[in-house]
Write a structure and sequence with these properties.
29% of the residues lie in helices and 32% in strands. It is of the alpha+beta class. It has an eight-stranded mixed sheet with strand order 1-2-3-4-5-6-8-7.
Length: 174
């Protein structure tokens, strides 16, 4: 899928296993995202391609969203990481990738988006609040992975953010 942005055309597509090292490089450039092993990003590109999306411009990877549908929550898309290269910021790219991802057939049963965000991550809060607002959806959050209880004090508390899309789907069907 090709989308137009203020900075030119961008291609959105499913990742392939060959994209894993480029995804790993992009995440490394997008501080303060948690970096994982390159192997992990290869597995995401291979096993979870249906629920991940990448953005390319002029043959270069400039955006990435990783996600999955948890087996115990088949109506939920869990978004794990959103990465946008510095030169691609201000294009609304993350929002466009998230919108394209939720429109995929694999997400037909999805009525909720979940993610975790630290309180200090203003960019992620802005993205998900805007997405909820523009989807006319409810958004809520609560502490989930806590600094003391889960991270041994080494990481800020991650808040579970939920966007309830069900109301929008019901209105669209009426």
């Amino acid at each position: 899928m090709i989308i137009e942005t203020p900075k030119g055309a961008v291609r959105l597509r499913k990742p392939k296993v060959e994209d894993g090292s480029n995804v790993w490089d992009l995440i490394g450039r997008c501080k303060p995202l948690d970096e994982n092993s390159m192997y992990f990003n290869l597995v995401q590109c291979d096993h979870f391609a249906e629920t991940c999306i990448l953005a390319e411009q002029d043959g270069e990877l400039i955006g990435w969203i990783s996600g999955h549908i948890p087996p115990e929550k088949p109506d939920t898309l869990f978004v794990w990481q959103v990465a946008v290269d510095g030169r691609a910021r201000g294009m609304g790219l993350a929002h466009k990738m998230l919108d394209a991802l939720i429109q995929r057939p694999v997400c037909d049963a999805v009525v909720r988006i979940e993610t975790t965000i630290t309180k200090e991550n203003d960019a992620s809060w802005a993205l998900f609040r805007k997405f909820a607002r523009e989807s006319d959806a409810e958004i809520s959050d609560e502490p989930h992975f806590e600094r003391g209880a889960h991270f041994d004090g080494a990481h800020d508390t991650e808040h579970l953010v939920s966007i309830e899309l069900e109301a929008e789907a019901e209105r669209s069907a009426a």
